[in-house]
Structures are given as C-alpha cells and as structure tokens.
Amino acid sequence: MTKRSDRTNGIIEATVQLLKEEGSEGLTLRKVAGRCGITLSNLQYYYPGKTALLQATADHFFRTCEEQILAERAEALNGDPASSHVFLKRLLTLLIVCELDEFYNAVFRELWALAIRDAALGAALRTYYRRYAAWMVDMIAELFPQADAIVSLLIPYAEGYALVGESMPLDREEVVSLWYQLITALPDNPL
Fold first, then answer.
1. CA 150 to CA 145: how far, in whole Å?
2. Which tops the pLDDT comparison, 112 or 40?
C-alpha cells in the first residue's frame, strides 16, 4: 500500500469508529482528524468536507461487501452445476445472518440518517445502491436467469432485515431457508 492509501484507510476507519460510537450527530471533521493524529487541514486535503468523507466511507462499505461476496462465490463455485445453489445459500447467509458485518450495518444506518439532511450524500448513496445492484445482477446472472428479480427483492429485504430482523418470528436461519426456497422456485422467465 502507498502512504496515501494507508492514510485514507486510517481516516475511513476513524470515521467508522466515530459513527459507531457517537452516531451521526457526533461526527465532525475535527474529531476524525484528532483520531488520526493529523491536522484538520491535512484531513481536508484528502476529503474537503464532511460529505466527501461520508461518500468515501460509503464507497468503502460497498467495496467491503463486494469483496466478501466475491470470496464466498469463489469458494462455493467449483464447476459442479449444484455449486450455484451452494453459493446462493452462502450469499443469503452472508446478507441475512452475518449481515456482512453488524458494525458496518450500524454505521450505514448513520450514513442514511445523515443523507436525509444532506442531498449530495443521499444522491451518492442511491448511486452506490444502483451500482451495487447492477454488480450483483451481473455476478449472479450466469447462475440464475431471474437475477434482476432476485436482486430487486433481496437487497432491500436484507437492508430492512438488518434493522428489524431480531423482532421477527422466524430466526435468521429459517429466513435464509425461506429465501432459498423462494428463489429456487422462481420461474426461469419471470413475468
């Protein structure tokens, strides 16, 4: 890694820590700079404002999600036709049971809270979700012809489940099983 990427990674990690500990109302550029042991002007060299910093944090979140999903895909797919179903179960488990990382889910909720008052951040998050959904469709389309339908239902469900899942009558593993049954029962050519 370069010195610049080490510094930006440290800044993102400090931002994530502050969002987790203090929520969106406690996040300031000055606090992030303090956590990193750099001056405010040095932080602003990398991220000119809070919105740019939060956009970089959201981008980091999506890259982390993609890396974890790709690792599961690489491990599950082995050329056997049944391996697509193994990958589907791992993907569902990753999105619903593991929630990718509860730490990042808490932080991402804070980002959405800030996006309500920050139009540029809100637009960036919607752009990230469009990119994430398109990426996921491309990744599973060769395995499941109804990829558009799966992704259109699964991403919003997983995001909402991260908020309310603990309150639902079925446990997470039962929800994964239900989703698996629903997806594998979809016709190859949806409406």
1. 9
2. 40
Domain of 13, in residue numbers: 1-48
Q: Are residues 20 and 81 in the same domain?
A: no
What spatial distance separates the first Cα and last Cα of the chain, rounded to whole Å?
48
Which of helix, strand or coil describes residue 1? coil
Mutual angle of helices 119-141 and 102-117, in 10-degree steps = 140
Residue 88 has pLDDT above 60, yes or no: yes
User: Which of 166, 96, 155 is closest to 125 using CA atoms?
Assistant: 155
Query: What does the pLDDT read at residue 78?
Result: 78
**Does the pLDDT of residue 121 top 90, yes or no?**
no
d(CA 76, CA 89): 10
Q: Please, how many CA atoms are within 13 Å of residue 5, restricted to the half-sphere of its CB?
A: 3
Say which residue the tokens 């989703």 belong to. 179
Our count of domains for the chain comes to 2
H-helix segments, the chain:
3-22, 29-36, 40-46, 50-76, 83-92, 102-117, 119-141, 147-164, 172-185
* 152 and 66 co-located in one domain: yes
Model pLDDT for residues 15-34, shown as the tens digit of each residue: 988 888 888 788 899 999 99
Helical ranges in 77-118 per DSSP H: 83-92, 102-117
